[in-house]
Amino acid sequence: MIADNSTRYLRPGRADRVVMAAMSGLTRLGVSVAGSRVLAVRGRSSGEWRTVPVNLLTLGGERYLVAPRGHAQWVRNLRAAGGGELRLGRRVEEFTAVEVDDAVKTPILREYLRRWGWEVGRFFDGVTADATDAQLASIAPGFPVFRLS
């Protein structure tokens, strides 16, 4: 199991960077791979736009971004900026973001793993969509989640 760590972060490896670059390239061309978007958020120090591919989750009429690698730079930037842009090809959608409390992440993490476990499951250290509510609640602090509006 993953340690209950509010500063958990997994640095992308070389293969991860290649896959992320390919996903970003396709998404920039307007091809959404399994719901992918390019997240653009202003850097908290530089003020410059930073981009990263993300999986946009829709659940119960709400939209969420989940950080499978933990408290990554985009997470820190989004916390500081309070919003950003989701890009797919030429379409740009501005949004505001509110971080979700750990106590309500269980169904969000379960659905995220159900949809993208094939892609991000290795970051969850053996926890799957079939995990118990208690198991998902125990890992919740290591996986930031934002509700978009």
UniProtKB/TrEMBL annotation:
GO MF terms held by the record: oxidoreductase activity
- Which Pfam families does the record match to this protein? F420H2_quin_red (PF04075)
Q: Please give the InterPro entries that the UniProt record associates with this protein.
A: F420H2_quin_Rdtase, Split_barrel_FMN-bd
Q: What is this protein called?
A: Deazaflavin-dependent oxidoreductase (Nitroreductase family)
Species per Swiss-Prot/TrEMBL record: Pseudonocardia endophytica
